């Protein structure tokens, strides 16, 4: 399998060449040159493999179609090492919970940091360690986080050989639970940096350091953000696993609803569907930051300013633009790289928007690719959390609540609807208390983590100071 850029660059690369990279050199995102097709016989085989051998074996089947530069035995070992009951809490890894007839939650958030990002990041940690050892190289991951991504990255990279993590976060602005999760890590290769500033200051520091190309090369600076193809690929697997659990035969179709921000999760659903998974609808659920809902309703993609980006009670979906959206638009426009470049490289940077409403291809988003969308507000979240608690005695987190609310607007009789559960309620306790008047359940292993010793350095919002810190630790 070879990979290409969404902006038309003619070069083609193998999986391990793009594994440690972010954007393609022309500013585009990497996608496979084609989507391998899963026919009926393969789907049956995978169903049996998943049932008999479990999630790791299914992951190996899916990944094998996209990775031809890691020997199969090694790839198998990486999958087996990643998707274990010890790490993901259950033998099923992504169990379905049936709420009502034909209405399910797929549990993706029982990993180390209780959000779905662990599903991909845990694999990424093992892939990075493997590939860096093979090359005899080291990597310094520099990131900015306001919560889920940073902790998932740290728990995936802790103790990994060849990898150091420098994670910036806005000082005092994460929830006590999130701070405890990250700052209680004592591993030598994990560096928590609390920046005196807001999240944007953290992002600016990462950009400033990455834009210093000499420094970036000399100190091998990398990232693990959501545009990384390996992360997206890892997520494709649980769409298959959800389908196999909700159906008994391959003649059945299902729909998925995905609480969406940067469009990484649902883009993996798009890839699964392009491979031939029988998916009717892919429902993008947004919060008040409705960039994606607006596009699927109107054909207009309009990036928001930071003043126009709301802080909500489903904060991991608070985005001003959807970083992975370009991947879908590339497919929607018949893989026309020149056009994608004109839209994302030019129109968007000049006008902050583009408009496909008059393009006949726009209607394909729904009719051909199954995409529909909806929006959920703080009041909707509270009502949905309450309703789910009262009717099913089940506590759901705020992001999952956005999904459940929007999913109900897109049901088709007889077609199972699977809502992806993207986090556990304990991560967003304040809103749970507001909705239910009681504290959320806390998994046993997180009892008392707020009281653990913390390892974090507070630093000014100054890129040079961060560079010095990296240099000192690269000894
Ligand atoms: C990251 C995140 C999302 C959004 O996922 P995208 O891949 O960015 O669309 C939704 N819910 C939670 C809890 C998350 O951490």
Keywords:
single chain; 475 residues; alpha/beta; Rossmann fold; six-stranded mixed sheet; five-stranded parallel sheet; 15 strands; globular; binds pyridoxal-5'-phosphate
Give a verbal description of the structure.
- The chain is an alpha/beta fold and 475 residues long.
- It has a domain of 227 residues: Rossmann fold (3-Layer(aba) Sandwich).
- The protein is 44% helix and 15% strand.
- Strand 5, helix 7 and strand 6 form a beta-alpha-beta unit.
- The site of pyridoxal-5'-phosphate has 16 residues, from helix 12.
Query: Any idea of the CATH topology of one domain?
Result: Rossmann fold
Mean pLDDT: 95
Strands, total number: 15
For the record, what CATH class of one domain applies? Alpha Beta
**Uncertain stretches of 5 or more adjacent residues:** none
N-end to C-end Cα span: 38 Å
> Which molecules other than protein and nucleic acid are bound?
pyridoxal-5'-phosphate
The strand order across the widest sheet is 3-4-14-9-10-13
- Proper CATH architecture of one domain: 3-Layer(aba) Sandwich
Helical percentage: 40-55%
Question: How many helices?
Answer: 20
Question: How much strand?
Answer: 15-25%
- Gyration radius over CA: 21 Å
Computed structural class: alpha/beta
Principal-axes shape call: globular
Query: Could you give a short account of the major beta sheet?
Result: 6 strands, mixed
